[in-house]
């Protein structure tokens, strides 16, 4: 999608601090980090929201979690713990309509979230 911010990051048209990449997934640092580690894991393919997922995206979503696990481990947070969040829609706080898994670590994270 030419007007999608995260598709532009996938294409290399907008710079990002890349933390992980494979054939289907990339991850980069959130520009407005909410914790010492705040990564965004995204599929290279444009999917706007969780509502747009299809059955054949199941493996892709699994790969996003495997990337999150690796990023957290590489940053040294596997044992301490981390949070993965994917917001869906405006009421949940989704502002970029290309699905992304937030990976947050490095501070105590309150529950329930705001
Ligand atoms: P959400 O509110 O769940 O849609 O999350 C969108 C996230 O994208 C926010 O945490 C933003 O800080 C982050 N973000 C927006 N623009 C960029 C960018 N150019 N590079 C990295 N992260 C970004
Ligand atoms: Zn996109």
SSE topology sketch:
Elements: H1 5-11, E1 18-21, E2 25-29, E3 37-43, H2 58-74, E4 83-85, E5 101-105
Antiparallel strand pairs: 1-2, 2-3, 3-5, 4-5
Adenosine monophosphate is lined by residues 5, 14, 16, 28, 30-32, 40, 87, 93-96.
Folded structure, characterized:
The chain has a single domain (5-105), classed as HIT family, subunit A (2-Layer Sandwich), CATH 3.30.428.10. The chain has a five-stranded antiparallel β-sheet, with helices on one face. The protein is built from two helices and five strands. Helices cover 21% and strands 21% of the residues. With 114 residues, the protein is an alpha+beta fold. The N and C termini lie far apart (31 Å). Adenosine monophosphate binds at residues 5, 14, 16, 28, 30-32, 40, 87, 93-96.
Radius of gyration: 14 Å
CATH homology superfamily: HIT-like
Elements, N to C (H/E): HEEEHEE
Provide a count of the helices.
Answer: 2
| Protein structure class | alpha+beta
| Oligomerization status of the protein chains | single chain
Overall average residue pLDDT: 97
Strand runs, count: 5
Helix content: 10-25%
Low-confidence stretches: none
How many strands, what sense, and barrel or not for the largest sheet? 5 strands, antiparallel
CATH architecture: 2-Layer Sandwich
Name of the CATH first level = Alpha Beta
Could you say which overall geometry the principal axes of the C-alpha atoms support? globular
Strand content: 15-25%
Spell out which ligands are present: adenosine monophosphate, zinc ion
Cα-to-Cα separation, first versus last residue: 31 Å
């Amino acid at each position: 999608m030419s007007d999608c911010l995260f598709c532009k990051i996938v294409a290399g048209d907008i710079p990002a601090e890349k933390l992980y990449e494979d054939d289907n997934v990339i991850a980069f640092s959130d520009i407005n980090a909410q914790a010492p580690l705040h990564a965004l894991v995204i599929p290279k393919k444009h999917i706007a929201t969780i509502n747009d997922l299809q059955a054949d995206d199941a493996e892709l979503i699994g790969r996003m979690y495997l990337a999150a696990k690796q990023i957290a481990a590489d940053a040294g947070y596997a044992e301490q713990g981390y949070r993965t969040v994917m917001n869906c829609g405006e009421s949940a706080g989704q502002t970029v309509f290309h699905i992304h898994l937030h990976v947050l670590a490095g501070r105590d994270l309150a529950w329930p979230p705001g």
